[in-house]
Amino acid sequence: MLDFTGRVAIVTGAGHGLGRQYALDLGRRGARVVVDDVATAVDGTAGGENPADAVAAEIRAAGGEAVAEHSSVADPAGGEAIVDRALTEFGRLDILVNNAGIARTNEFGGVRYDDVLASLRVHLLGAFHLLLPAWKRFQAQGEGVVVNTTSAVGMFGQRRSSVYAAGKMGVVGLTRVLASEGAEHGIRVNAIAPVARSRMAGEVYGRLDPKLDPAFVSAVVLALAHPSSTVTGEVVSAGGGRMSRLFSAAAPGFFTPGLDDETAAAHLGEVCAEESVAAVPGCAMDEIDLIRACYPDLADYRMAPR
Description:
- It holds the Pfam family adh_short.
- This protein is 41% helix and 14% strand.
- The protein is of the alpha/beta class.
- It folds into 2 domains: 8-246, Rossmann fold (3-Layer(aba) Sandwich), CATH 3.40.50.720; 248-306, no CATH class.
- Helix 1 packs across helix 8, helix 3 (76-90) packs parallel to helix 5 and helix 4 (113-123) runs parallel beside helix 7 (162-182).
- The longest helix has 21 residues, at 162-182.
- The radius of gyration is 21 Å and the shape is globular.
């Protein structure tokens, strides 16, 4: 069992499902936990009792340390309040798990702008609202760990999920950039793409559902969050006992120094059907370097990360 004694963790959306599992598991392993959640339904509308109190109480009953926080990740003030709570109660912050989410699915023709704003405020802007104040703390102390939450829906697409997918793919880009910038400050940033039975998933997984214990995902989140890990900048899929790396790749493509519109049209179909992998770029400049590599006179001029 991994030991988190002395570490302080924030888990957002920790009142139900995956977030609850993360908070309980961190608490059992010695972390002091800020359990953040708000009293809302799955779609983000207000209603019911706040579940954060019960989760924090469960951690304390098992001998751990935890406090409940009821601020929303959907606005900057809420993000500041959550980070401030960790510093006020426990004097430090080591781990940030951005887990909060809502579900508003619809064919794109039925999407309302209110749905766009509500979803992005939680999934993408919500990460920023926590990260901006937490990042300053991590830089000052020379270490910190972030586990963001993305989804296969963002990486690969899914009908009725345009807004959700846009936010979750935004999280991937954010994760990659922060991992690069954070390395010199001792900050690691990764993203988890979870597959688990939960209130939000509902009946999506059908007969697979009994295999998708949230504990399987939590095991990977804890591995990413533990100080023994050196992994950063990755998207890890986790569910049902399986974990794997998700990544964007570049195919070999088609090259001619005289590319024009007719040539592009003639070869575009085959280029877009290509599934072999030429490279897994570590950053945007790595992908651009594949163009440079087509020119023999630039063999000594590799594109460098910026």
